[in-house]
Each structure stands twice: as C-alpha cells, then as structure tokens.
Amino acid sequence: MSEAAPVLYMLCGKVAAGKSTLGQRLATPGSIVIAQDHWMSKLYKQELQSVADYARLIPRLRDAIGPHVADLLRAGLCVVMDWPANTIASRAWMRRIFESAGASHQLHFLDVPDEVCLARLQVRNAEGRHEYTVSRAEFEELTRYFEPPTPAEGFDIVIHREG
Prior knowledge:
Layout (H helix, E strand, L loop, with lengths): L6 E6 L6 H8 L4 E5 H8 L7 H24 L3 E7 L3 H14 L2 E8 L2 H14 L8 H10 L11 E5 L2
C-alpha cells in the first residue's frame, strides 16, 4: 500500500497518443493500472465491432469498474486509469470516482498532433500487439468526439506535448 495519499491518474489523448505508455510510466509500487482496452477485449470480444458498439457497451463497464476504483483509492492505492478521459462526460465520471473516495487526482493530457498519432497507429496496427486494430476512418470518427480538457473543468492538468 502507498504511504502517500491515493491519487487517481487519468489519461486524455487521441488514439495512439501514448496514453498506455504514459500510464505504465506513472505506475509505481502501491499503484494499480486499470486498462479499458484490456477489459473491453475480454468482456465484449464478439460484441465490440464498431464505435457505435463502444458507445453502447462502455456504460456497462463504467458501472462495474467505477465503484471498484473508488474502493481501491479508499484502501490507499493509487490508480492509473488507462481509460480515455477524452470527453467532458468521461472526465465527469472519473471526477465522481475520486471525489467519492476522497482521493487526489491528476489529469494527464497528451497533446499530440494527429499526424503523429496516425503514424504511431500504423506501427501499432502492423505489430499486432494491441487488443484492437484501429483504421484511419475509426481514428477520424473517434477524433470527432475528442474534447481537450479546459481549466474551467477544474482538474489538476499535466500537459504532455509531443510531435
């Protein structure tokens, strides 16, 4: 268990911006990484075939994972949510988790240009090690929903610029 106050680390960035890589770097002894893609691929392997399927299925996983994450924070563990905090609504859901647990938070925003993300996505798809292959069309569809965080949301934002 961590000696410091528990922290919920949240990750915001487009597909292939480096969220999972950063999440692994943020993980320390006394913390746990919870990766959305892992859980979605295990629970909904056959059902998840499109962005529309994702929008339909993600609330079910949020309902299951949210209370668990709050319990981990209350137990004194830091949690790295390798889970896209890419919309105002998803960040509000995460806020409810850390606030209900009385934990601190950090929102890490990976501000990476589309060209860099697409180049990384091409490599990631070719390697075949990620749970999902994402096409350029899917990248563009997901990017339409992306809402960068703003100071008005009241998060402790750490910005990472690359590219």
